[in-house]
Amino acid sequence: ATVNVFRKDGEVSIDFECVKGPGTTSNITANITNISSGLVYNFTFQAAVPKYAKLQIMPLSNTSINPGGSIKMAMVVDNPSDPHKQVMMRLRPKYTNAANAVVEEDIKASNLPSWV
Question: Which residues have CB under 8 Å from 49's CB, separation 6+?
Answer without folding.
Answer: 55, 77, 79, 87, 88, 89, 90
